[in-house]
Amino acid sequence: MTNSLPESPIVRSLAPADVDPIRRILEATGSFNEEERRVAVELVEQALRDPEGDYHVVVLAAGGDVIGYTCFGRAPFTEAVFDVYWIAIDPVWHGTGAARTLMAATEARIRERGGRLILVETASRESYSRTRRFYEAIGYRETARLRDYYRTGDDKIVYEKRWE
Question: N or C: lower Cβ tally within 10 Å for the chain?
Answer without folding.
Answer: C
